[in-house]
Amino acid sequence: MTLSDAQGVMEKKRMKDRTKAKVKAALLDSFFVFYSILVVDRVIWDRFILQLRETHFSWAETGLFALISLFVGVVWSLTGTSLSDRLFGLAKPTKTAKLTFEIFGWFLFNITFIAGWIITKISIVDLFSDEGVAAAQRIFAALFSPRMAIFDEALFAIIETIYIALVATLISIPITLVVSFLSARNLMNDNKFTLLIYAFFRLISNFVRSIEPLIWAIIFSVWIGIGPYAGMLALLIHTIASNAKLYSEAIESIEEGPIEAISATGANKLQVIWYAVIPQIILPFLSFTIYRWDINVRMATIIGLVGGGGIGTMLIQYQGLAQWHEVGLIVIMIALVVWIMDYISTKIRQAIY
Question: CB–CB of 247/176 below 8 Å?
Fold first, then answer.
């Protein structure tokens, strides 16, 4: 291949990449316009100005908004002054492009903040009303005067919570290791089959991670019954998915030099992983695992609210009976245990590094 041919190939590749970027920018601009129309129409106009309790919905109107947004987004992107053109590095270096980016960027931020304020119904008046402040004083007075009669029961429940988190973290380690290696693109880009495996595990882990442990605890409580086993499984499956992402990203960020050096000796895939990859990821893996154990201790108190066992189940029982003195004891014990576990995990991470 001559130099001119190589330059032609490179130029075609640049044009192809630029075309893809322009298409993405046009679609993103269309989304920004569609989002702006919906927020202004459905939230600011309906909820704030018209004071409607519920926003109206019409498929025909929504479809019309989508078509208008697509047209405006495409035309706007073609001008080279759109918000997405700036984000993708396609904007023209002019004052108009810069001004358009700043104006529409601030517009998006402001309507998003205003919509959030309206939807969450923020009210300083309600927060500091005489009735509200009096109720808060009663609850906090009860919380900070704990009743020690249930201390033994609460102590067993908090120990159960710690073991739920510990077992979930320990069991997740070997499974997560396997999944993380299969989810690392730099180790799975040998051929189309391995890339398919990579995409499959990434898809599954993203799906599992998108469902909070609280929801998994509800699922397993219905599946196997209420108790610590359901809570442990909920934490286990979410820990595997979450740590697999962290582990795989750590693998993808390793230096390629050792891999190339080991591969040059004729080593097979497993040998490359053992001698070139694992030495670079041991410390990050340990740090991520310890940090996840810290998270699981806190999450174990929450999943108990939906039948996952441990101190959370006890907390929801006394809270439902409005026995705030007992709730105060449980909250203090949870805070103390979380603080101790956080201190221990911090010391372990410091010792590792």
Answer: yes
